[in-house]
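Cross-check.
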Amino acid sequence: MSSQNPRAMLEVLDVHKRFGDIEVLRGIDLTVNRGQTTVIIGPSGSGKSTLLRTMNHLETVDAGRIYLDGELIGYREAGNRLKPLPERAVARQRRDIGMVFQNFNLFPHMTALGNVVEAPIHVKGVNRAEAEDKGRTLLAKVGLADKMASHPHQLSGGQQQRVAIARALAMDPKVMMFDEATSALDPELVGEVLKVMEQLAQEGMTMVVVTHEMGFAREAADDVVFMDHGVVVEEGKPADIFDHPQNERTRAFLRAVLEPTAPAITDSVGDPGPSDAAGEA
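Predicted model, tokenized:
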């Protein structure tokens, strides 16, 4: 059975995920429409990164369904039961999902251009000349026209992350996902990466962004989702969430992150999964 919502690029339906005795996702429902930028915010351990990782099946779900462009991710339906797809079929689905992590994960022995063209050539079978032509265009798009022959160790963190974005875009994904893409960067380098992300949002790329950058959430998002303790506490337009939050937990979180003198928010429910341990803020 496929999704019945023609506007939806991504649908998360009643998704649960547990690590040991801790239920990290507790029945998440979320829809990301085509061309929409959805930004997910919340305290560390709230399940943000785990949710993102279930969307491309880097983490399996314990219950629920996730659809990308109407196709069930990671499973096939057999009657009323879900059967895991073979890894090859999951890999094919992941081609449609661009993923940018906080750590750049570039191949150190390859140039910036080499990193960008590797997957199109070896995964999609694109002709090398065509892949390199597109790779040069994408690197120019992210402001790295003069760094195509540079290796990762010759690039700043912000430049490496922009190469990672170009690499993800080279696969022509249906959706781009960003998991704390700026959290490993020095503060002065954050802006150059956010600028590229804002440009993608303006161009109508479907995006799901987990971030602690509230300015980006306010300016670039079509929809802001606040998560806490593995549930969606509140969701709405940026102006509604930031200026008129309805839930006291949302208000407390925003006071903590937007007012420097406010006490820090801590979360009693940790997330022992590998996705959130280092990736959430």
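The longest strand covers residues 8-19. Residues 262-281 have pLDDT under 50 and may be disordered. Passed to J.P. for a second look.
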